[in-house]
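REVIEWER CHECKLIST
Item 1: Sequence provided? yes
Item 2: Single chain? yes
Item 3: Sequence as submitted:
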Amino acid sequence: METLTVDLGERSYPIYIGQDLLGQTQYVVPHVKAKQVMIVTNETIAPLYLEKTLAAFSEFNTASVILPDGEEYKNLEVLNQIFDSLLKKHCDRQVTLVALGGGVVGDMTGFAAASYQRGVPFIQIPTTLLAQVDSSVGGKTGVNHALGKNMIGAFHQPQCVVIDTNTLNTLEDRQLKAGAAEVIKYGLINDPEFFSWLETNIQALLSRDPQALSYAIACSCQDKADIVSLDEKEAGMRALLNLGHTFGHAIETAMNYTGCLHGEGVSIGMCLAAKLSQKMGWITSKTADQIIRLIEVTGLPSQIPPNLNAEQLLTLMQIDKKVQAGRIRFVLLKAIGKTVVTDDYDPIALKNVLEGA
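Item 4: Structure as written out by the authors:
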């Protein structure tokens, strides 16, 4: 078992990474300050892991709420199910929420915790690769809106993150690959050695080799923890973690949050970012091809779905959280392992990239 730390002063918290951590009280009990616990999960995860998780909190007054599974349910209407359960159980402002599931469950539970009685503590127990390497760490919480992804939310840090890599054994292959997109992102942002490791070891990762998974998760979490510790509220460098996301979020929104997993949107977005960076003369065609090749070898999509068009995506990207003064800002590449947030791009080049030219 490995322990990392997100260093935020008095609000610092540990990330526990290992096998067979689920159900072990020593990783969660110290982070619960009162007697009430509400576990939030979904219809897919509950039959697999809810009973074991409840056992870890057996000394508390524990209840659970089971949400529908899917990005299309990450909205205010479904979020209200969490508030309904909290109020019906007479939970006070000392209750600890526990997110048991993937990124949707984690984001919604965190937002519920940030909002309920103006803020209660919560714990992240991510069960997908994407959640383990990215969304469970850093305190970004929220829900989607029909016009834009994650446009309603709050920064609210967890008390701890418990990553049991054994939960990945029940994860379907498509979801594993979607999580790998976020892993690749960390290599591209600021860790070229990790990117090289992925080029050599991506098949071991996809075959769920325990050592490869643990190494990739630990590297990703460490990279994210380092950035979050320096820029918690995304005033500067944390925006680099959005590589591929401006494109990806627009694709997800255009598809009504169905048919394209978040990691798949990010993988397409990273390919588009590489192509735009190449057209700007910031990276060579060889580097762009190297990035796209790893994404395609992973089994992830690299092209915009054929039913979407450039004008539609440009309109949706105008609603992105990084837009300033009406101008879209992108995370683009200067090299593998070196990225920048910029609005210094050629609009014609952007449109060509979106049109596949």
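Item 5: Key structural point noted by reviewer: The chain has two domains: 2-170, 173-354.
Item 6: Recommendation: ____
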